[in-house]
Amino acid sequence: MTKLTLYHAAPSRSSIVRWMLEELGEPYDLNVLSLMKGEQHQPAYLTVNPMGKVPALRHGEVIVTEAAAICTYLADEFPHARLNVPVGDPRRGPYLKWLFFSPGCIEPAITDRAFPRQEQARRSMLGYGDFDTVMSVLAKAVEPGPYLLGEQFTAADVVVGSTLRWGLMFSLLPTRPEFMAYVGRLEQRPALQRATALDQELAAA
């Protein structure tokens, strides 16, 4: 079996991928980097990810970076876990939309709200439009439940759910009942509980 290796730091965005790997149930190795020591900027790691950040995933000779891309890749490479929507299924369009919506809309909307510009940007210049629209679209999507695509939990829930958990943890999101209920359902998943416990141990070490 081709080995999976996650280049990881806790806490960081690579925790998204660790949750995804726990959902897959496939064995994987960790290559832990100290962000405090700047190991992500060392030449050895820059050959893996020239951006100098985590996560990065090595799967045999393949290297994938960016958390949402890694989760998409893993879901397609290991279809037995049923974390993807295959090509040809009409639900694949919405599935891909949510995978891209999180890094393309939710996270930028949150960070722009947390660190406002001195001069307000024009709505048309922002890829996500405006914060309130993003929040309303997201709330409407997660309200029916249990997951973004209904009964099937997918990689999109890992990516969107991780961003929501982070935003709520640091009071960067409104505590809308739709968000609280959705995150509450996610936190019942054993894979997320395992990933969280493992990362807490790692951060404390």
Structural description of this entry:
The chain is an alpha+beta fold. It has 2 domains: about 5-80 and about 190-205, Glutaredoxin, CATH 3.40.30; about 90-190, Glutathione S-transferase Yfyf (Class Pi), Chain A, domain 2 (Up-down Bundle), CATH 1.20.1050.10. It is built from 8 helices and 4 strands, in the order E-H-E-H-E-E-H-H-H-H-H-H. It has helices at about 15-25, 45, 65-75, 90-115, 130-140, 155-170, 175-185, 190-205, and strands spanning about 5-10, 30, 55-60, 60-65. A 4-stranded mixed sheet has the order 2-1-3-4, with helices on one face. Helix 4 (about 90-115) runs parallel beside helix 6 (about 155-170) and helix 6 packs across helix 7 (about 175-185). The longest helix has 23 residues, at about 90-115. The radius of gyration is 17 Å and the shape is globular. It starts with a strand and ends with a helix.
